[in-house]
Amino acid sequence: MTPVIELLKAHRSIRKFTDQTVDQSVVEELVIAGQAAATSSFIQACTVLQVNDPAKREKLAQWAGPQPYVEQAPQFLVFCADMKRHQLVCEMHDAPMASGFTEQFLTASLDCGLFAQNLVVAAESLGLGVVYIGGLRNKIAEVADLLDLPELVYPVFGLCLGYPDQNPETKPRLPLSVVLKQDSYDDSQDAATIAEYDETVRDYYASRTGGTKDMSWSEQISGMLSKEARPHMLPFLQQRGFLNK
Ligand SMILES: Cc1cc2nc3c(=O)[nH]c(=O)nc-3n(C[C@H](O)[C@H](O)[C@H](O)COP(=O)(O)O)c2cc1C
Question: What is the pTM of this model?
Answer without folding.
Answer: 0.97
